[in-house]
Amino acid sequence: MGHTEVDCADPSPRNVVGKLPYDVKFRAPEEKRRRLQSFAQVASESFGSGSSSRSRLSRNSDTRAEDQCKHEAGRNRGEHDETTSQLKRSGDFNEVLEASEQAGGITRPERQMEGFRNTVEVCGFHGLGYIGSQYTWDNRQDGGRNVKVRLDRGLATSPFLDMFPETNVWHLQRQNQIIAA
């Protein structure tokens, strides 16, 4: 099986909440099927459907312990035998892995970023890096009020990277708007 490349010459515009209107799924041949869990399921259990702008610091230790149990339980949920396995996820996760992925604005709590890092690890995902602009979102304000953040990213499992070792993620800029492809 050779290298597969997905070209995005005209990326889709974001919807009103700033999210790209698609999800990425790759179809693997029968012999490459894997039993993998869904990132979306574990991430929704970890972060809910809320934005990263809401702080999780007010949650007590019992709630955090319950979240960790959900992380662990998520290892066995979401496994499936379908030929279309979710080997790769990409898009706007509304969270950063490291403080260096944000310039300006209120500094994100380390605990919040750690929660996202833990979820990525539990799911067995690896960052795909990027080519292009460091940031994928910009509030377009001037001076000290400007905030830029890398909210969009590509993540993949080791089996995906074994099948597609030449995978790249491009951050494309279009008409003063940054789009992740």
From TrEMBL:
Listed Low complexity bias regions: 44-58
Annotated segments matching region Disordered: 1-21, 37-90
InterPro entries: Endo/exonu/phosph_ase_sf
Stretches with biased composition (Basic and acidic residues): 59-83
Official protein name in the record: Uncharacterized protein
Organism: Eleusine coracana subsp. coracana
Gene: ga16882
